[in-house]
UniProtKB/TrEMBL annotation, chains A, B, C:
<dbReference type="InterPro" id="IPR000417">
    <property type="entry name" value="Hyethyz_kinase"/>
</dbReference>
<dbReference type="GO" id="GO:0005524">
    <property type="term" value="F:ATP binding"/>
</dbReference>
<keyword id="KW-0784">Thiamine biosynthesis</keyword>
<dbReference type="GO" id="GO:0009228">
    <property type="term" value="P:thiamine biosynthetic process"/>
</dbReference>
<comment type="function">
    <text>Catalyzes the phosphorylation of the hydroxyl group of 4-methyl-5-beta-hydroxyethylthiazole (THZ).</text>
</comment>
<comment type="similarity">
    <text>Belongs to the Thz kinase family.</text>
</comment>
<keyword id="KW-0547">Nucleotide-binding</keyword>
<comment type="pathway">
    <text>Cofactor biosynthesis; thiamine diphosphate biosynthesis; 4-methyl-5-(2-phosphoethyl)-thiazole from 5-(2-hydroxyethyl)-4-methylthiazole: step 1/1.</text>
</comment>
<dbReference type="GO" id="GO:0000287">
    <property type="term" value="F:magnesium ion binding"/>
</dbReference>
<keyword id="KW-0808">Transferase</keyword>
<dbReference type="InterPro" id="IPR029056">
    <property type="entry name" value="Ribokinase-like"/>
</dbReference>
<keyword id="KW-0067">ATP-binding</keyword>
<dbReference type="GO" id="GO:0110051">
    <property type="term" value="P:metabolite repair"/>
</dbReference>
<dbReference type="GO" id="GO:0009229">
    <property type="term" value="P:thiamine diphosphate biosynthetic process"/>
</dbReference>
<feature type="binding site">
    <location>
        <position position="196"/>
    </location>
    <ligand>
        <name>substrate</name>
    </ligand>
</feature>
<feature type="binding site">
    <location>
        <position position="47"/>
    </location>
    <ligand>
        <name>substrate</name>
    </ligand>
</feature>
<keyword id="KW-0460">Magnesium</keyword>
């Protein structure tokens, strides 16, 4: 796990070279942002969710991103068949279980997805990850305000249980594939005041995973890029500028990001077991 | 009804303190903007529209916003059951009957909603409100260009008939719960050239209503905040800037808004009966 | 075909005078952008896709834009009945067959649409247009990277076969109604790095077609406006600004566009037969 920042930079170079097609079955609220962030990072987004075509779309894609933000019965069905197809052809599947603790419908859906599909990376906030881990949580909608105790343990255990990479976003971000746990300190508070920054992070992770040998690095590259770009955009804000301008500059910073940006700004520690 | 501006400011403080969860069953065109505006004002948005989960979402929310912009049979059903649940647990329901005069499907839907759900606030343009009031109108899509005659009378009568607060947006905005009529003079013409400013106003009203004892003040706080933020954003436009930059600065101004902004910029009269 | 730039300018003046209602049955990813671009150009957008109301919406509209970006069975049905109604009442129908080569579902849908509806203008990238022309293509999602050879021939032949105006977007844009072929050289590369610029171009074409006697000019006016506005926005970018700011300035430039902007910046040739 040495040279993590260099490895992240290498993935970014690969994404820009290969322009991977990233298939999204995602929510209606932030899908435009997700498409734009994939373009900004050098990938090619496609949003397709009808059961009549998702298998074909998966077949020409390099990764599949499943986001549960605005579930309905139709897209659940599409998620399952697209996820199975992605497993079959060997492209990574990334899950963002948005608001999974909020309703029975979401909990049942995530159970069905976990039973049917092998995920390369699962990314959520602490509340969502705890729900997956079977910990009882009181979810206040899609946000999480639970404490940090046990965060690293939960990530590691769930990664082992599901044989996947777990990314937990929050004040600090945590990435683990069951052994080491990487804690990332990038990302300003203002990112939580713009809708879709979480979904965009998942899309970035999808783009990186599509060219990664090691999904831990893919997860780190995505979550850290959003954090650093957020910090850079925040520093650029002028007087009277707030979330509107921040969102614009965030997208600028993502498009301007290069491998040196990781090295100059990346801030992480590898936690002891 | 004294100190209206101070009461609006108090509601804004309360929203920022309580961060109420505002459940939206809304249209696909502007849902991203609506989520961002709720975050900018200090609330927490959730967009969920599937019949399998809307009652649970309502149950952990502080207000329900129903927007008819892109109706289909599925979301109509969700609107009815979510609205009934909201009434049952006592959280305010806000209706934005977008383009209700345009089609039979919309008129039938609004009739079903009015028969099933008690609304705290209904917000529309003159054409939409006239349709609700049973006045024959020729709707040109979702916009209204009818004259102002009788505006105040229509607002007061419809508020009494439906036992609700009526907000009519236009060059001037009108708010009434059946007795006094408050006429608000804030808001630049350019607001009509950005899609979703009407929907965002409804989302703001939802956030304010969630913490209001008096829904008239909730309605005023929402519509006036959008008007004032629009004026401030308009003044900030540089040479060659137009709707693109206006939209960004509008969101900045909404996030920067505080109780003093109401007092410095609010412009209204209370009309005589 | 003299004075093409003046004719484009005349159409722009007409759109701003008449404020035509442009009905969209379009994709969920970019519908907000499409609504905003129609407003910026002086038109009035309406997005409605339920089978229960599309015929009524068409009946009060001046053009119908059908965009296949996020197909599902419900909106395919709505596209067919809305398209037939538009033909019946004589308003132009514009088709954007997004990603048509990607799946059987899309190819079958476009076949159904072409069999049921007479289109005034069909706009796609080379890959999409080749699919319509029955040329075998390997589509990489919704983008096209095929060569330019035969572009003009394909446009002219397909226009004749389908009795429509064909617009092919790419590095150069091509417009033909079967005889002359107009090649437009406006538009910076960066337009391909923002999602929805293609969909927005189709919406612009819809607005222009709604007031045009000659759909070739309608197609040219739309595609050239996006190209020129892109060039102007690109020139305005400051250091560290990229796709985020570009998108904002693009919308500014579209709203600031006037008939002189065509004359000062339009760059085209009429290709020999």
């Amino acid at each position: 796990m040495n040279n993590i920042l260099e490895q992240c930079g290498d993935l970014l170079i690969k994404v820009r070279e290969k322009q991977p097609l990233i298939h999204h079955i995602t929510n209606y609220v932030t899908m435009n942002d997700c498409a734009n962030v994939v373009l900004a990072i050098g990938g090619s987004p496609i949003m397709a969710m009808d059961k009549n075509e998702v298998e074909e779309i998966v077949s020409c894609s390099s990764a599949l991103v499943i986001n549960m933000g605005t579930l309905n019965e139709n897209n659940v069905h599409s998620m399952v068949i697209a996820g199975k197809k992605a497993n079959e052809i060997g492209i990574p599947v990334i899950l963002d279980p948005v608001g999974v603790g909020a309703t029975n419908f979401r909990r049942q859906t995530v159970r069905k997805l976990l039973d049917s599909v092998q995920f390369a990376i699962i990314k959520g906030n602490m509340s969502e990850i705890k729900t997956l881990a079977g910990v009882n949580v009181t979810s206040k909608g899609v946000d999480s305000n639970t404490d940090d105790i046990g965060k690293e343990l939960i990530a590691r255990n769930l990664a082992n249980e599901l044989n996947t990479t777990i990314v937990i976003t929050g004040k600090d971000d945590i990435v683990s594939r069951g052994k080491e746990v990487v804690v990332i300190h990038n990302g300003p508070e203002l990112l939580t005041k713009v809708t879709g920054t979480g979904c965009m992070t998942t899309s970035l992770i999808g783009a990186f995973a599509s060219v990664a040998d090691d999904f831990t690095i893919g997860g780190i590259a995505g979550v850290m890029l959003m954090g650093i770009a957020g910090e850079l955009a925040y520093k650029m804000l002028l007087k009277d500028e707030n979330v509107g301008s921040f969102r614009v500059k965030l997208m600028d910073c993502i498009a301007e990001f290069n491998e040196q940006t990781y090295i100059d700004n990346g801030n992480y520690v590898i936690a002891e077991k």
